[in-house]
Request: fold
Amino acid sequence: NDDKDAAAKASENFGKSVANFDVKKVNSSKQQEAKQILEEMKTHATHISKMDIVDQRAHFAEINDNMKNLLAITGSDRKLYEQFCPMYADNKGGFWLSESKDIRNPLFGSQMLNCGAVRHTIVLQ
Reply:
């Protein structure tokens, strides 16, 4: 919603959730990898709480990458959609995860709210 302050608040809450993630529920052979991913996510969440909207979006994109990697280890308790905008980051593209098939591009916000498409569906595991 192009709201820097709301994004900062949400990132603080997200950082707390990440800190409370119980790594012991992860397969023991993947716990170290999960810990590293969670640390990266916390770092990005901390940055989001202190930056302007453009930089917030860049860190949000990184969190989505981390989340996708974490989901590869943990699985998902719900159906998610990996959505992709080809124009983000000077046409390199960027993706985000959503619970809805509807495109609401968080990487561009109101500038290009409907830019993107579903690339993959992440099924329940």
In short: The two ends are 31 Å apart (CA to CA). The longest helix spans residues 53-74. The CA atoms of residues 51 and 80 lie 28 Å apart. The chain has a mean pLDDT of 94.
